[in-house]
Predict the structure.
Amino acid sequence: MLLPIHISICGSERADNAATSALSLPITNMKLPAYELIPCVSKFCFDKWQDIWDCCESKKLHSIYPTVGIVEHSKNMSRYDFVHVNRLRIGHHHLTHPHILCGNDPPTCESCGRPLTVKHTLTECANLWDIRAKYFSVLSVRELFESVDIRTVLDFIKETHFYQQL
């Protein structure tokens, strides 16, 4: 007799019933090496993970990484740089969001007085146009990260002196 140990967990009764009914099934002598199951189990897990991730479409990170498990990490990029790139991709960094925690007014761009955002810095600020033109010419942040090499984006951020403040 099986004792239900997962009381009040969603689906536990079904799992207990399935386990109980499996006891009456005949044992087969089929031999299957475990390594043949790994791709199937792996695909199953990724599919479930993707289903969960697809429920998060409203999250900023989902718009940048819509598919789980395929984030490419550059071997030539430090962890420090990779964190900054991800912060830029989701539009959050220390310059643009400290007011949320501190309860202050949102920051403004020192050079033009407009609200300071990642989008403003990377694509809009007229005072950064000359520097930006040296590195890339895009109309949106999404286009920037889809068509421009990450190292180029980091070089731009370094030249504009935002890198040290990220």
